[in-house]
Amino acid sequence: MIALFDLDGTLTDPKAGITRSVQYALERLGRPVPDAGALTWMIGPPLVSGFTELLGGAEEVPDAVRFYRERYGDVGLFENEVYAGIPALLRSLEEKGVRLHVATSKLQVFAQRILEHFDLSRFFAGIYGSEPDNRNADKRDLIRHILDRERFDPAGAVMIGDRKHDVIGAAANGIATIGVSWGYGSREELRQAGAACLADDPQGLEAPILRLTGSTPRPAATA
Asked: Among 203, 183, 158, which Cα is nearest to 81's?
């Protein structure tokens, strides 16, 4: 009975902090700076791959990441808010014996600070993220790392996330995913990636989490 939660776009809405930090990085590079609304696609993918696409190549990416983290690590990570209903969901799952972990492409140290700031870290047995050298930024690598560390059965686990990267990363490790529609990936993106089901609000997550982790009996097949 394991639930892995993405952070950005799933537990919290990070739009302001991420887009402003991307804008800051572009400004420092002397690049054109789009409106925040044109940068929301940067929420979810690994930072290096996002900047590679945004900048049209890899040459300036190390500087872009450095400038981004310069601002994000100071103020951007707290330009953020917890989605309504998330604390109550986490509390209920914990009470029902589901072991909770965070699996985010964000730097682990940033994820830890955010969750502590919003008093959510107490619900999680483990908070996993990427490293400064980009290790585990890919969700496939990250979830493999979590499995190596935690030694749980993938068949009794579920991933919860808002982007295709969550679905792909979990599937590569034999774990089903519940897609959430309140984040930054579309329902079509999540369905096409292979999400087992979709939830439209945190209140709608508990039942499929319990079902997919084997915490409740699965419905009998019908003829």
From this structure: 183
